[in-house]
Design goal:
The complex is a heterodimer. Chain A is mainly beta. Chain A is built from 4 helices and 16 strands. Chain A has a single domain, classed as Porin, CATH 2.40.160. A 16-stranded antiparallel barrel of chain A has the order 1-2-3-4-5-6-7-8-9-10-11-12-13-14-15-16. In chain A, strand 10 and strand 11 form a beta hairpin. Chain A is globular and about 60 Å long. Chain A starts with 9 loop residues before the first helix and ends with a strand. Chain B has 2 domains: about 90 residues, Immunoglobulin-like (Sandwich), CATH 2.60.40.1120; about 90 residues, Immunoglobulin-like. By secondary structure, chain B is mainly beta. Chain B is globular and about 60 Å long. Chain B is built from 1 helix and 17 strands. In chain B, the strands form 5 sheets. Chain B has a 5-stranded mixed sheet with strand order 6-12-11-8-9, with no helix packed on it. At the A-B interface, loops of A face strand 8 and strand 11 of B.
Amino acid sequence: MIRLRGCSTPRLCGALLLTLAPWALVATSPALDWDLSLDARLVTSDAQPPFAQDGSGTVRFGEDDSGLRLGRARLALTQPFGEVWSAHIDVSMYDDYDRSPVGVTEAYLLFRPYPRSGYRLRVKAGGFYAPISLENRAAGWDSPYTISYSAIDSWLGIEVRTLGLEAQLDWLGTRLGHSFDLGVTGGVFGWNQGAGTVLAGGGWSLTDRQTALFGRIGTPGVPPTYGALPFEQYDHRAGVYGGIEARYLDRLTVRALRYDNRADPAASDSVSGEMAWWTRFNSAGARYEGDGGWTAIVQWMSGETTIAPPGLSLSWPFKAEYALLAKRFGRHTLSARYDRFMVSTNIAEGDGSQDGHAWTAAYAYDAGAHWRIALEWLQVVSSSYNRVELGGLPLATETQLQLSIRYAIGSH
Amino acid sequence: MRPPARVCRGRWAAWLAWAGLFLSGPLLLPAGAGVAATLIVDAQTSDGHALAGAAVTVRPLDGQGHRPTPVQAVMDQVNRAFVPDLLVIPVGSTVSFPNTDSVSHQIYSFSPAKRFQLPLYRGKPYPPVHFDQPGVVTLGCNIHDHMLAYLVVTDAPWYGPTGTDGAWTAELPPGRYRVELWHPRLDESEGRLARELTVGDVERARVTVRLSKSLQPPPPPPERSYAGDY
């Protein structure tokens, strides 16, 4: 995370930094690949303030945010070292009353040797996304289908990141005359023992705001997130994940992954008192790309997060799923998605429990190499204990309409 | 014989080649076979539609065919795709990969007929790759997983890809021939597609090769907005 201390207008400085950095770097290294994009939004919303602003809203922009907003300013750099090594960094700025106006969402070193005898190994070290999402396949872990991510991917973007090492071994059957490829992935990581804090405190939401590595969410001491720090380590236990992937003719992709941060739920920081959240989940999904520009995605996730302050064991089982259907007509894409999600708890009063569903409809137009225009309507219907705690009614229907205009340039 | 698509020759090389063919033609023909016939091969899918982009090879059964002349072919990289995605070339040919994309590629093959890896970085020319063994060479890119192309390296005297109408045409002397057909998306259980036929002293001979199984579906077209799976 880059903090711009001493800067009176941090967002302006961030924008300047994002704009000038590629030119400075390209001047020094001709092999450097770079991408720069600016996504402006026109928003109208009737939602309550989002969790990032200590509210109980389930979408990125609350009613008070209606108007012209910064969706995302992004700079990504990839520097190859020889043929098989490269370093990648993704820096983003979100205008969300954020604790970290400019942050690094991913930064890793990639070792990608040429395949041999049909097998290929890939090793990543640093901070990056585990191979779970099936919709976020555009640059910067964005979705090419909708502006807002599914509930599952929104949560991954907020709280889950690998800070460690991942190895992926692929068997490239399609290069050997077969019709499918297979892959296995394993990861070992630390600094993700705060994952689960936002889910248990604020519940699921549908957003496209990714938390910077080592970033903070919300205000310390203020519900529902209490200034959550997802990227912290409270004990000496490494988290692990393992996944499998199968691809049939590049048309059907199936993924399944088991994640367990293996945190000791009784561990805490002796100074701040922050607890370790033991979070584990299973995820599975499939994406099919058919004839005529059709894409269908289904994904499911189920897990639990636990903390154990002295004498207690508090658990929040969670579950979410979605189905997305998209149709591409040349440069136009129409997408529709249905999300369903819930958080329950073993606390008798129901702290943190939530139950809801969401409909998303989006239209995107790729106006050439640089411009993309997207319009999205999103409605979330949810019932949440959190709203009662903040003095409201449990049930809310929130609707957000966004127009996104994105300009992107880069070395390719 | 129709030259394979995208084969580059200089003007002088072309003149020399034609002159060579003109002079050596009578020597290559069997004794008494002064007339060349036209062979048309029609490739069809299992439901009877024209099958474009299939590799056709024709060998004489009496073993009197000439060895094909190596060519210098080009397979470009355009918009993160190989163009063309199928080349049929004689054994001993070379293929250059110019990469007109602004992004780098790392192409590779681990097919038995030719194992190689070649980085294609922006603005750096690389020497052509020599293909000296017959067989199908599957090409991929280590950076862009969806990129896929095929080289059919053949020692058959007559060869080439079918056109959009599913047809391929060659001029050859009368005799008995074996026609073989291959396509990248053949069903794994399709087996070898071959026909034997006699081409007599007629102007045209025509043979249809029809698949018995449906072709496997093509991969979805690559979208510019997709960076690849995370």
